[in-house]
Amino acid sequence: MRYKGIWIGIIIVLTVTIFNVLNYWNIKQVFRTLKEEKLYIAEKNNQKTDAIKAEAIYGYVAGYLNSTNPSLMTQEIPDFVYLTVEYAREFKINPYQCLTICQIEDGFDLHKVGSHGEQGPAQLMPDTWKIYYKSLGYRPSDFYKWQCNYRVAMAHFSELLKQNHDHVEMAIGEYNGGGGWSNIESSRIYVQRFKLANRGISKLREAKKDFDGTF
Description:
Layout: H1 4-68, H2 77-91, H3 95-106, H4 126-132, H5 146-163, H6 168-177, H7 185-202, H8 205-210
């Protein structure tokens, strides 16, 4: 009997401990659930916002294609425009700059293959693909899918912007001609073409309102 009080104390301590552990676990689960719900809602809101922005950009792309080469207005173009916005958000770059690259590379021909094996709307080089594709979860054969090589191209452009401290012209020059682009006449012309094309895009109401370097 003299140990009865001790056992009662132990039982009480264990009961309180178990209660606290379970209570802590429940609270942790509640916070985890709330966090997941918050992330889910945020992602849905982002997707909704992306769809609105993509629709605004689509008007520009559709107008351009109709005025230059209506045959390029395929059923894939809306997907291309939405992915432009999605990739721009993912890599924190301006979607109109992405579009400008595609405009001067191949006029939005999503399936164009260049003379050196460049693929897709941004004419991504095979060697550049090899640098990024694994980290982005792709297989080697995905290079031939424009959705995949376009994403890698935008990841590459984003990295060039970081390396050049967000100096767009320097990044564009390297995108075209590599580190020594300033000594390559074709790359200097490429940069000028980009500046001219992007100047027209930046005058659009949607661009100044939503994407003036703040996307």
